[in-house]
Write a structure and sequence with these properties.
The chain is α/β, with parallel strands linked by helices and 511 residues long. The chain has 11 helices and 19 strands. 43% of the residues lie in helices and 23% in strands. The longest helix has 104 residues.
C-alpha cells in the first residue's frame, strides 16, 4: 500500500457514499464492512460521482511560473466556466499531455461545490469521522493502465451504470481525455422502462431482470422494451462519442468497456458493438483481489487498486475536506497543554536544579584545582620535549626534501637514457619492417611522421606512385600479412596534377 503520509495503516476502507457501502481491504482480500467505525489505523478512500463535479479543459501560457500556476488556473476556471464568485469552489487539476502547443500548457480541471461534498458524504462522516482521499471517479481508471491490465496504446471508452448516476470516460494512450455524466442511471432507465411497459414495476425487480436475464430475457414484451430503451441510450452515447472525436481530434475509438454496479447485463456489450460498430467488452477486470462476494462493485476494486499505486503513477486529485484529526502534539490544544505542563515542571524544578548545580560546581572546582597542582609540572616538561622534537623534525624534513630532489633528478636522467636506448631502436625496427615491401610494389615513401600518446603509437607514411592500383595492392598485402601487429588505415588516394602521380597517407597503428 503506497499512501501519502508516513503513518502505517493496517487496512484500507473504500467507500461508496451514494449507496453507503464499505469494503475493507487487507493484503489482497476484499470483504464487505457492514458496521464501519472510526479507526486511526485504517486508510479511507472514496470517489466523487460524475454528477457531483464539473470537468473542463483549459489552457494557460507556458511562461507562467509553477508557483503562480494554482492561482492562474483558479482565476481562469472562474472566468471560463462563469462560476459564482461568492462560492469558494474546490478546484483540482491534472496536466494534459495529449495537446501539443508551443505557447500553452493544457490542464483538465475538476470543480466541486463544497455544499455538494457535505451532502454526498454526510452519512459517511457520521460512520467513520474522516476520509483521507476523495478522487473523481474518472481518474480511478488510470490504474488499469499503470497495472498493465489494459493496453497503453489504445483509445478506450468506459461506460458504467449506477443506481443514481452513469458516466462515460475516454482515455487515449493511457491518459485521461474526457468524462461526462450521462442521463441513463439505473433509476432513470427503470422509469423509462415503466413508461414503455405502461405499468409500474419496482426498481428491485427491474434490477433483478437486468442482472439475471439482461437483454436476452425470455419475456418477449420485456425484451422488446429493453431493446428500445437501450437503443435510446446508445443514440445519446453515439452523440457524445461524435463530439469527443471532433473536439479532441480522435480518429477512432478502439474499445468500449460497458457495465454496471449490478454486474454483467447479458447482451449489453454485444448490443453496444452492433449499434456503435466499436469493439465492446464487459466492464469487468481481473484486479488480483479475492472476495467472498458473488459480485464486487468495480469501483471498490478500482479504489483499492488506486491505493497500491505510487503517487507518480496515478492522478493525484484529492477533494477531501474531512481530514483525520492531527496528532495530539500538533493540535493547538495539545501544544497549549504540553507547554503549560512544561512551564509548571520547569518552575518547580528550578530551585532544586540551581542548588544542585552550584554544589556540583564547588566540588568540581576543588577536584580540578588538585589535579592542576600535579599536572602542571608534567605539562611544562612535555612542552619542552615537544618543541625539541619539532625542531628535529624540521631538520629531518629539509634533509628528506634534498634527497628527494636528488633522487628525482637521477630518475629523470635514467628515463631519458632509457627512451633513447629503447624507443629509437624500436621505431627504426618498425620502420624497416614496414617499408621493406614498398619497392616490391613500386611505391615511393615521401615523408614519415610519428605520433605517440598514452594509448596509441601511430606512424603516418606519405606514399607516392604512378598508379593508384599499386598503392591499393600494397595496402591489400599489408592487411593480409601484418594485421596481427598493426592496424592499417588509408582514407583516400588523390592524383597530384603537378607531379603526375598518385598520393595517399597510410596510417599504421601499433597494436
Amino acid at each position: 500500500m503506497n499512501l501519502k503520509n508516513k503513518q502505517s495503516f493496517t487496512s484500507v476502507i473504500s467507500v461508496d457514499p451514494y449507496k453507503r457501502e464499505y469494503f475493507k481491504g487487507i493484503s489482497s482480500h476484499l470483504e464487505r464492512e457492514l458496521d464501519p467505525t472510526y479507526s486511526k489505523t485504517q486508510y479511507v478512500l472514496s470517489y466523487l460521482g460524475a454528477k457531483s463535479f464539473i470537468s473542463s479543459l483549459i489552457s494557460v501560457s507556458k511562461n507562467i511560473p509553477e508557483d503562480d500556476l494554482p492561482d492562474i488556473i483558479e482565476n481562469k476556471v472562474y472566468e471560463d466556466l462563469a462560476l459564482d464568485m461568492a462560492i469558494s469552489y474546490k478546484i483540482s487539476y491534472i496536466e494534459a499531455y495529449n495537446n501539443i502547443d508551443e505557447t500553452n500548457r493544457f490542464f483538465h480541471v475538476f470543480v466541486v461545490d463544497p455544499l455538494t461534498l457535505d451532502e454526498d458524504f454526510q452519512y459517511v462522516i457520521e460512520d467513520i469521522k474522516y476520509i483521507d482521499q476523495i478522487v473523481p471517479v474518472a481518474l480511478l481508471l488510470k490504474t488499469l493502465y499503470t497495472k498493465e491490465i489494459l493496453d497503453n496504446n489504445s483509445v478506450d471508452c468506459f461506460i458504467y451504470l449506477q443506481e443514481n448516476d452513469a458516466f462515460l470516460t475516454i482515455y487515449s494512450d493511457s491518459e485521461f481525455i474526457y468524462t461526462k455524466s450521462i442521463k441513463f442511471s439505473l433509476t432513470e432507465l427503470h422509469q423509462r422502462f415503466c413508461e414503455l411497459l405502461g405499468e409500474q414495476i419496482s426498481l428491485q425487480l427491474f434490477s433483478q431482470l437486468l442482472s439475471t436475464e439482461g437483454l436476452a430475457t425470455s419475456n418477449k414484451e420485456y425484451q422488446q422494451h429493453l431493446i428500445k430503451l437501450f437503443s435510446e441510450t446508445f443514440v445519446h452515447i453515439n452523440d457524445v462519442l461524435t463530439y469527443v472525436k471532433r473536439a479532441f481530434e480522435i480518429e477512432k475509438i478502439d474499445h468500449i468497456y460497458i457495465g454496471s454496479e449490478l454486474g454483467k447485463i447479458a447482451g449489453l456489450d454485444e448490443y453496444s458493438q452492433t449499434y456503435l460498430a466499436i469493439k465492446s467488452s464487459e466492464f469487468d477486470f481481473n484486479y488480483g483481489y479475492t472476495t467472498e462476494q458473488n459480485h464486487l462493485n468495480q469501483l471498490h476494486a478500482l479504489m483499492h487498486l488506486y491505493t497500491t499505486m505510487p503517487s507518480t503513477q496515478r492522478y493525484e486529485c484529492n477533494f477531501s475536506i474531512f481530514h483525520r484529526p492531527p496528532p495530539f502534539t500538533k493540535r493547538e490544544s495539545g501544544k497549549f497543554i504540553l507547554l503549560t505542563s512544561a512551564a509548571l515542571a520547569i518552575s518547580l524544578l528550578y530551585p532544586i536544579v540551581n542548588w544542585s548545580l552550584s554544589y556540583a560546581e564547588t566540588i568540581r572546582y576543588s577536584m580540578l584545582n588538585q589535579d592542576y597542582t600535579s599536572v602542571h609540572p608534567i605539562k611544562m616538561t612535555r612542552e619542552a620535549t615537544i618543541n625539541l622534537k619539532e625542531k628535529q623534525k624540521l631538520e629531518a624534513d629539509n634533509i628528506k626534501k634534498a634527497e628527494e630532489n636528488e633522487y628525482n633528478n637521477k630518475k629523470n636522467t635514467l628515463i631519458k637514457i632509457h627512451e633513447v636506448k629503447v624507443n629509437y631502436p624500436m621505431k627504426a625496427k618498425h620502420l624497416t619492417y614496414l617499408t621493406k615491401d614498398l619497392n616490391k610494389y613500386s611505391v615511393m615513401l615521401t615523408n614519415i611522421a610519428y605520433d605517440e600518446n598514452e594509448s596509441n603509437k601511430t606512424f603516418v607514411f606519405s606514399l607516392s606512385s604512378t598508379s593508384d592500383k599499386k598503392i591499393t595492392e600494397l595496402l591489400e598485402y599489408l592487411t593480409k600479412t601484418k594485421t596481427d601487429t598493426y592496424k592499417f588505415s588509408l582514407q583516400h588516394i588523390d592524383f597530384d596534377e603537378k607531379e603526375k602521380s598518385y598520393i595517399s597517407e597510410l596510417k599504421v597503428k601499433l597494436l
